[in-house]
Sequence to fold (264 residues):
Amino acid sequence: MKIIILAAGKGQRLSPLTDEKPKCMVKLFGKSLLEWQIDVFRELNINDISVVTGYKKELISINNVKFYHNSDFENTNMVETLFCAEKEFNDTIIVSYGDIIFETSVLQKLIESKEEFSIIVDKKWKKYWEIRNEDPLEDAESLRIDELGYITSIGQKVSNISEIQAQYIGLMKFQGDATNIIKKFYFEMKEKAKSGNNPLNSNIPFEKSYMTDLLYGLIKKGIKLKSVHIENGWLELDTMNDYKIYNSMNKIDSLSKIIDLEKL
Fold:
């Protein structure tokens, strides 16, 4: 089993914390986001870890980790960053965004899933979003799940909260034939995009495609993506508002409403 951590972005909404360092190296509760993640992976004896860097890559230094680099990080997004580590697509892989931390139990649930495509989703997302935003619809995206637990919509802008049955957290696992399916689909879409229209998201160039664009494209092609349900137990550090809220909650011992740091 391999880990690929996507850590190429600049994290502009975390400025000034990211003015001099990449987002994944911002410290939260005494450790960088990247250190929190790697400690959890190693706690479960997963040591084949790759990090895809971009912005200020020279400041990312972790022992016994492989590095890939997205040299065009300023003009690309998560999908292109993932494919910078295509060399690792030859085993079961867990892909994680570089700006999240999560309890060991969250990772354990993902590992235990037997599906080819497994996507962690938070069923109690609204409770968490209300802490971060006055309007829970702000910055939330569609995620609909059928009666068998497979995702039918992901990453779309919504106007009604009923379109959100859970929230995608940026953590997933591909096993069996999944990596071959993803590679084939990615290159097919990239070829089609040469006509001038991005088949994953017509509003943006192909190289700017979001991970949810790729996942939703797979769903529309008939690929089954299994939702793996959690109830909080994770944090995303996206803005200075997040940073201030989390640190304030930690000071008054209320952070456990969302995540138990002792379980990381």
About this structure: Residues 61 and 157 are 36 Å apart (CA to CA). The mean pLDDT is 95. The chain has one domain: 2-263. The radius of gyration is 18 Å.
